[in-house]
From TrEMBL:
<dbReference type="Pfam" id="PF01248">
    <property type="entry name" value="Ribosomal_L7Ae"/>
</dbReference>
<feature type="domain" description="Ribosomal protein eL8/eL30/eS12/Gadd45">
    <location>
        <begin position="7"/>
        <end position="91"/>
    </location>
</feature>
<dbReference type="GO" id="GO:0005737">
    <property type="term" value="C:cytoplasm"/>
</dbReference>
<protein>
    <submittedName>
        <fullName>Growth arrest and DNA damage inducible gamma</fullName>
    </submittedName>
</protein>
<dbReference type="GO" id="GO:0005634">
    <property type="term" value="C:nucleus"/>
</dbReference>
<comment type="similarity">
    <text>Belongs to the GADD45 family.</text>
</comment>
<dbReference type="InterPro" id="IPR004038">
    <property type="entry name" value="Ribosomal_eL8/eL30/eS12/Gad45"/>
</dbReference>
<dbReference type="GO" id="GO:0051726">
    <property type="term" value="P:regulation of cell cycle"/>
</dbReference>
<dbReference type="InterPro" id="IPR024824">
    <property type="entry name" value="GADD45"/>
</dbReference>
<dbReference type="InterPro" id="IPR029064">
    <property type="entry name" value="Ribosomal_eL30-like_sf"/>
</dbReference>
Amino acid sequence: MQSPGKSLKEALLCAQTEERLTVGVYESAKIMTEDPDSVSFCVLAMDEEFECDIALQIHFTLIQSFCFDNDISIVRVSDMQRLVEIVGDKAEQFEDAHCVLITNPADGSWEDPALEKLHLFCEESRHLNDWVPEISLPER
């Protein structure tokens, strides 16, 4: 099996080309509130700002709780800049890339092997009581 980081990168790139990415804490919260069944996967990105930002920590706690309650797989990444490089053409385009959602396609007929591997990874991690596993994104 390929590394979870490589699977995450592939799933993000696939979702980006199909316009199924939501980037930003507030934008993600809006999607989760309006249509939680449309959300397939959640990525929380931490950086040095996270340690000092109590509001962001509270948002992360609420997002994690929402994901658990709605059976949405969730992972953490520690390199937000690398995440921005993968999901955005310009870093300034995403001032808040602390949360990235992958939504389901509108027709519901699609399956992404990379995303399936990530769901399996998350399920296995939960069995080991690692509820929000951390994934390292591969370098370029």
